[in-house]
């Protein structure tokens, strides 16, 4: 079984398409046997002809001697020649025939010896050829087994590996991207955090309902998310209430200046001083509505009696505020500034006026509605961010990764607001993901500052794309998967749905809680200090105790939840079910360099992640599509973790499977989970060992 990494400390931002085992190519060709060496019949015939030509005179002499000898015998017998003369002729002819016959016999014997030597030489050459052929066949069989092992590793390897930021990185800056790309990124990161037992808070300032897929996954996984839609749910939001006098003055001064450009510290201190004096007059723990009423009384805007009748301030408080400053030139500047503060803070007058007790949830989403104005968007976004900053500063550091905060549309916030939030998250060990639609100057100065990773998504603006390419470096070359481009155009960039508030009433919330999956959960209510948006110590210890038991099934639960409840998961599962699309998904689409025009046409879910690692700065091409985790070719292991795994076949790892069934065990590169293992293909027996001494068909 594959060893699951500790998911609580891992921040998975996407999946990397890599093929560690390249395609081995065609199988090795069977060695072609050379032409068999044999005795050349033409050469033997030539030797015979040559010997026959050399022996022709001797044969003629032999024949003549025999003929003369026979003639002498016949003449001597007929009395034509004398006996002595005939005998002498027979003796001479016999000697000549014997000499010529012996010469002919020696020639034939030499010819037979040459033919025998040639046959012996040919036999030795044939034996050497057969020996070399058998060696070639043995080498070919070994190469075939090696090729089968490489082919088996190539066909069964994982092609999508998790991309996780290293330890020590507490913040991820996401630059660029579309609404659908942010939805993919949020679902990928959030689903794995929820499955690991962590808690998530989402501030959606994009007004695009980006967290709908994550909410659908949470509900499919048995988690009841809490959703506030502003400004409709301002009265039921207790975030920022119950702060001390100085903290409340700082919060409201930051909110009031959040709609301006980067102001000076002097202007901010003047506004904070005015608010502190107003809060001192009001006493106790005043609400934002009371502070706004006090500012109206100070600036002499409206009728203080109306606010007194509404119970926001008393008549005595109104008189003290009216008499706090005079009416000369300096004081009038203060009064004008108080009027400006009131004009901005009045949009927050309903905060915490009708809080609703709600059960705790691992997923909390606070989003701006689609009907909020431009000024209201900045005021509400700054208020939520600064209020969370104050709460985080009061928390004790917990386990890294227990709580993760997402701020979508962070480019609407001022630079000093982002800096304070980042510092508070780092001190409290809270993970922070900041997503920017564009890269204005104050964002460009903060990208990757400190221990942060940067993820660049599609940047439609030419100047932003140029700045991103310069920061990444144009020498990097990346491989884009066909799945990334195919699925990127399948999921639209707009959504027809909007957030549905879950804080309408106590009864509705309790009803939805009672219909949960029956797991034992903490049911503590929200407190006046806004702790509903942050993890409690009790929930922290509970999650630590249950995280180990859930780690083995985390990947399966995440894949199932994403595939059945999110648009990305459904689209990816549908594409994977089609054999043609699946074949395309397992192919590389194209290679590209980090250039301006390439960053402007990245697929919706593609991102280029860069961070500082132990071996130096790394730049990785990743896909934030959460549906990739459900593919059989995906693994929750990173590429580094894969390479650090022990190779199967070593001590204690057991025998590897043999796809050919010929008794030769194949080394498996990685020990995959048993749930994703597929039976090895039947490649057939190895090629037979041919015996060239026999006639082949």
Descriptive overview:
This protein is α/β, with parallel strands linked by helices and 697 residues long. The protein folds into three domains: 41-154; 168-241 and 355-480 and 500-554 and 594-620, P-loop containing nucleotide triphosphate hydrolases (Rossmann fold, 3-Layer(aba) Sandwich), CATH 3.40.50; 245-348, no CATH class. Helices cover 48% and strands 12% of the residues. It has 22 helices and 14 strands. It has helices at residues 41-78, 83-156, 179-195, 212-220, 245-257, 265-282, 288-299, 304-309, 315-322, 329-345, 374-394, 415-427, 441-444, 462-472, 482-488, 506-514, 537-550, 554-565, 567-577, 579-585, 596-600, 639-644; strands spanning 11-17, 160-165, 171-175, 199-204, 226-230, 363-368, 403-408, 431-436, 452-456, 477-481, 588-593, 606-613, 616-623, 634-638. The strands form three sheets. The chain has a nine-stranded mixed sheet with strand order 5-6-4-7-8-3-9-12-13, with helices on both faces. A three-stranded mixed sheet has the order 1-2-14. The protein has a two-stranded antiparallel ribbon with strand order 10-11. It is rod-shaped and about 190 Å long.
């Amino acid at each position: 079984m594959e060893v699951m990494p500790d998911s609580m400390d891992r921040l998975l931002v996407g999946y990397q398409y890599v093929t560690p085992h390249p395609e081995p190519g065609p199988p090795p060709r069977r060695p072609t046997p050379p032409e068999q060496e044999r005795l050349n019949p033409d050469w033997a015939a030539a030797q015979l002809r040559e010997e026959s030509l050399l022996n022709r005179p001797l044969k003629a002499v032999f024949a003549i001697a025999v003929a003369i000898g026979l003639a002498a015998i016949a003449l001597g017998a007929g009395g034509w020649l004398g006996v002595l003369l005939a005998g002498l002729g027979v003796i001479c002819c016999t000697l000549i025939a014997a000499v010529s016959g012996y010469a002919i016999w020696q020639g034939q014997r030499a010819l037979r010896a040459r033919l025998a030597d040639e046959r012996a030489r040919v036999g030795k050459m044939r034996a050497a050829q057969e020996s070399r052929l058998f060696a070639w066949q043995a080498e070919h069989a070994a190469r075939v087994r090696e090729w089968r092992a490489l082919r088996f590793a190539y066909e069964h390897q994982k092609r999508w590996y998790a991309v996780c930021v290293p330890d020590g990185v507490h913040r991820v800056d996401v630059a660029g991207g579309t609404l659908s790309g942010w939805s993919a990124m949020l679902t990928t990161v959030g689903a794995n955090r929820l499955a690991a037992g962590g808690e998530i808070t989402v501030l959606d300032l994009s007004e695009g309902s980006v967290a709908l897929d994550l909410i659908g996954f949470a509900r499919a996984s048995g988690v009841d998310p809490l959703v506030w839609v502003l400004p409709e749910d301002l009265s039921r939001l207790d975030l920022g209430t119950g702060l001390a006098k100085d903290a409340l003055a700082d919060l409201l001064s930051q909110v009031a200046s959040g709609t301006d450009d980067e102001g000076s510290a002097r202007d901010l201190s003047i506004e904070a001083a005015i608010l502190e004096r107003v809060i001192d007059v009001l006493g106790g723990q005043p609400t934002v509505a009371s502070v706004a009423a006090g500012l109206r009384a100070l600036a002499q805007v409206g009728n203080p009696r109306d606010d007194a009748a509404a119970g926001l301030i008393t008549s005595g408080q109104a008189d003290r505020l009216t008499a706090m400053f005079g009416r000369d030139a300096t004081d009038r500047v203060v009064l004008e500034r108080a009027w400006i503060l009131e004009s901005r803070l009045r949009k927050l007058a309903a905060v915490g006026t009708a809080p609703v007790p709600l059960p705790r949830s691992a997923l909390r989403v606070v989003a701006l509605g689609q009907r909020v104005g431009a000024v209201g968007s900045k005021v509400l976004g700054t208020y939520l961010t600064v209020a969370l900053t104050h709460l985080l500063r009061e928390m004790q550091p917990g386990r890294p990764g227990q709580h993760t905060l997402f701020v979508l549309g962070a480019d609407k916030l001022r630079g000093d607001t982002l800096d304070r939030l980042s510092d508070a998250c780092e001190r409290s060990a809270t993970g922070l993901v900041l997503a920017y639609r564009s890269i204005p100057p104050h964002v460009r100065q903060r990208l990757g500052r400190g221990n942060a990773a940067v993820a660049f998504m599609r940047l439609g603006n030419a100047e932003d794309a140029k700045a991103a390419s310069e920061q990444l470096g144009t020498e990097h070359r990346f491989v884009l998967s066909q799945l990334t481009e195919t699925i990127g155009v399948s999921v639209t960039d707009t959504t027809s749905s909007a957030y549905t508030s879950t804080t309408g009433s106590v009864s509705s919330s309790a009803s939805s809680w009672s219909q949960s999956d029956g797991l034992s959960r903490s049911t503590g209510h929200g407190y006046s200090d806004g702790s509903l948006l942050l993890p409690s110590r009790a929930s922290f210890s509970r999650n630590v105790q249950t995280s180990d038991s859930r780690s083995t099934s985390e990947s399966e639960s995440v894949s199932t939840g994403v595939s059945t409840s999110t648009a990305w998961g459904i689209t990816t599962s549908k594409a994977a079910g089609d054999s043609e699309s699946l074949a395309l998904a397992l192919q590389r689409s194209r290679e590209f360099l980090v250039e301006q025009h390439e960053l402007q046409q990245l697929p919706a879910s593609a991102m280029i992640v860069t961070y500082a690692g132990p071996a130096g700065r790394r730049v990785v091409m990743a896909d934030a599509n959460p549906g990739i985790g459900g593919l059989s070719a995906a693994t929750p292991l990173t590429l580094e973790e894969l390479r650090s795994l022990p190779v199967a076949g070593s001590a204690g790892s057991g025998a590897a499977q043999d796809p050919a069934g010929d008794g030769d065990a194949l080394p498996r590169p990685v020990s995959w989970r048993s749930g994703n293992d597929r039976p090895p293909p039947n490649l057939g027996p190895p090629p037979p060992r041919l015996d060239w001494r026999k006639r082949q068909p």
